[in-house]
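Can't paste images in this forum, so I'm doing it all in text. The chain is below; anyone willing to post the predicted structure tokens underneath?
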Amino acid sequence: MKKLRIAIIAFCLIASIVLFLSSKFRDDPNRNGLWLVPPIVVQCTDSPASLEQIETALDWWKERGENFQGPVHGKCEGDHPPAGFIWISGSEVKGHSEMASTTWYVRGHTREILWARVRIFEMNERVLEHEIGHAVGWKHQNRFDHLMNQDYL
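Text version of the structure:
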């Protein structure tokens, strides 16, 4: 009986945290979603970005309140990372008109980001910071001087 009470209390606590965090960003027009747990950032073996460049880009976002684990170097296999990870990789396909792209999966009802993949086609530190912004849920912004403005770079 005691274990059941503890399980119910733990469930209610976790549900309350999820509801609070998801409601915090539900109506934020600047965000696509949020991470409930700081993601693990992986520099894939084919990434044109060095660990130092990735760490510098992460520091830029940490100064603005985002949290991460890593970066670490690793092999990235498959179409997308497992839950809880941001992969930073290169391009398998040549001839892109963009400098980079980011894909992510957001759980619809909570807007929790489950995974993200940043593909760098042409290494540029500001582009890396911009794409990490997408990986943590930021949308493009209309302000010209904003890092998340698609024409900023």
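The first strand starts at residue 40 and ends at 44. The two ends are 59 Å apart (CA to CA).
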